[in-house]
Design brief:
- Helix content is about 40%, strand content about 15%.
- It is an alpha/beta fold.
- Helix 4 packs parallel to helix 5, helix 12 packs parallel to helix 14 and helix 16 crosses helix 18.
- The strands form 3 sheets. Strands 10, 11, 12, 13, 14, 15, 16 and 17 form an 8-stranded mixed β-sheet that branches.
- The chain starts with a helix and ends in a 17-residue tail after the last helix.
- The protein is elongated, with a radius of gyration of 27 Å.
- It has 3 domains: about 240 residues, 2-enoyl-CoA Hydratase, Chain A, domain 1; about 200 residues, 2-enoyl-CoA Hydratase, Chain A, domain 1; about 35 residues, no CATH class.
- The protein has 20 helices and 17 strands.
């Protein structure tokens, strides 16, 4: 029998060999391409650089024409540690080991970490840097991907899932991040697509570069697949760490509170003059949000996609809230297909993780047009109606200006289940704008008038005077209060306090059928 010290030395040699991953040359190549190694990323992610790496000795068992045990860690590093002092689980694909390709044990390690995340109620972070399926393992790789997707679905709505795209992520590999809650992509390095440029060229004849097709800016702007763009690996990890400060560890907890809970009621006089006198003039809704919420607390999600609607996390007196707001400087704040999808996904996330929802409404309607109609604006818009209606967290709405028709309802109206609704004096709550309403209501009167244009103008002015205000809605309880804009923070603060113990029971069922 070998002496104990010799066995310990043997362990040290094995561990040192494992730390070299795919070898010094491949590590150097990783650095030269502007990327960190898998372990370096985890070292930066966890507090103090400390994490417990498990399944370090796992390796390949099925790879065709590759010696069993030849792939250290089977191309993925799995670690447990603390982020901002809270437990988290992470996987980091190792591109130096066969391009980080996914084989049976590779996927097994990832699924084991997801299981631990689920059982212990802690966030799961996946750092993706992989050439995709390991062809040498064939159907074993395919089965592995299926198990990963299944676990993504098990974790959904129970613990936060965050993906970093820090290298290639093509084909089936793209679907695991797509099933997660937030995706961060490193610009110039990360790539996300189902079929790459060469496949597209062969199938359709279309030519496009990999960066144009699957790069960060394209995926953030056109498809809306990713939520944040990072400058490099370090920036991506910093975004994860910052994002987690807004999220609870699991769906049974509340989001972290900053400060001592003291209610700070600041009156900002600028809010009383921020809305233009002409209701057709745009303004930047961000200026409103930044003046109401705690300083430095607004974190926008998907800032490059569907800019006509804003979704963000923010804090009120240290408490986290989710914000959905129309943006009048983009498409006048009208809701289109992309805005509907963006808002619906965010609303459902906040509801799943006990984050109160606050809406800021200035919406002229759903965006009209043949492209929108044929693209399914009815179905997509219905997602917002469904998402707000199905949410049981505290819901507060502030009507800033226009609140027209079904689009107003989709922004969380009282009749859709909002708990508290307040309107600024500039609010216009109606089925449609004055021009459209007058054309319908007074069609014959205008037609028979001596001067139809003057008559129409007169009727529009009358309609605006009688209906383009919040008081008709207030008279029948559609809104709770009409407030000065400068008192908005006070209103939200008190409303949140009064709703913090809210409980709302719904009919028993497996799940509702959102119009996907």
């Amino acid at each position: 029998m070998e002496p104990v010290q010799k066995k310990i030395e043997e362990l040290r040699i094995k561990e040192q060999k494992l730390l070299e991953s795919g070898g010094v040359d491949k590590i150097n190549k990783q650095h030269q391409s502007g990327k960190m190694t898998a372990r370096e990323r985890l070292h930066l992610l966890f507090d103090g650089g400390f994490y417990d790496e498990i399944y370090k000795h796992v390796s390949n068992i099925h790879s065709y024409n590759i010696k069993a045990g030849a792939l250290p860690g089977d191309g993925v590093i799995t670690g447990i540690g603390a982020i901002n002092g809270r437990l988290a689980y992470a996987t980091s694909q190792d591109f130096t080991v066969m391009g980080g390709s996914v084989g049976e044990m590779h996927s097994w390690k990832i699924c084991e970490m997801m299981d631990m995340s689920l059982k212990n109620g802690a966030p799961f972070i996946s750092i993706n840097d992989s050439g995709g399926a390991r062809i040498q393992e064939g159907i074993y790789s395919l089965r592995g991907y299926g198990k990963i997707f299944y676990h993504n679905t098990l974790l959904s709505g129970v613990v936060p899932q965050i993906a970093i795209i820090a290298g290639p992520c093509a084909g089936g590999a793209a679907y695991s991040p797509a099933l997660m809650d937030f995706i961060i992509m490193v610009e110039g390095i990360g790539q996300l697509f189902i079929a790459g440029p060469q496949v597209i060229k062969e199938a359709t004849g279309e030519e496009i570069s990999a960066e144009e097709l699957g790069g960060a800016l394209s995926q953030a702007t056109y498809s809306g697949n990713i939520h944040f763009i990072a400058r490099d690996d370090a920036d991506a990890i910093e975004i994860v760490q910052h994002l987690l400060t807004y999220l609870p560890s699991n769906n049974m907890e509340e989001a972290p509170v900053v400060g001592n809970g003291e209610i700070v009621l600041i009156e900002d006089e600028t809010l009383n003059t921020i809305i233009p006198d002409d209701p057709r003039d745009p303004y930047d809704m961000f200026e409103v949000l930044l003046r109401i919420f705690d300083p430095g607390s607004v974190l926008e999600i998907q800032s490059h996609f569907a800019k006509n609607i804003i979704v963000c996390f923010a804090r009120v007196n240290g408490r986290v809230v989710g914000v959905v707001a129309n943006q009048p400087i983009e498409k006048y704040g009208a809701i289109d297909i992309d805005a509907s999808d963006k808002a619906s996904r965010f609303i459902r996330f906040c509801n799943a993780f006990n984050i109160p929802l606050i809406s800021f409404v200035d919406v002229p309607g759903f965006l009209p047009g043949i492209e929108q109609e044929f693209g399914g604006i009815i179905r997509h818009g219905a997602k917002m109606l469904f998402s707000f209606s199905a949410s049981t967290v505290p819901k507060i709405s502030i009507i800033v200006r226009k609140a027209y028709g079904g689009a107003y309802l989709a922004m969380s109206a009282k009749s859709l289940g909002a708990d508290r609704v307040a309107a600024w004096p500039t609010a216009e709550i109606a089925v449609m704008g004055a021009e459209g309403a007058v054309s319908v209501l007074y069609k014959d009167e205008i037609k028979t008038a001596d001067n139809p244009m003057e008559k129409r103008k007169e009727l529009i002015e009358r309609y605006n005077k009688e209906h383009a205000n919040p008081y008709s809605a207030a008279s029948i309880g559609m809104i709770d209060s009409v407030i000065e804009p400068k008192h908005t923070r006070q209103y939200i603060s008190i409303a949140l306090e009064s709703l913090k113990n809210k409980r709302e029971l719904r009919p028993a069922k497996k799940h509702g059928l959102i119009p996907l």
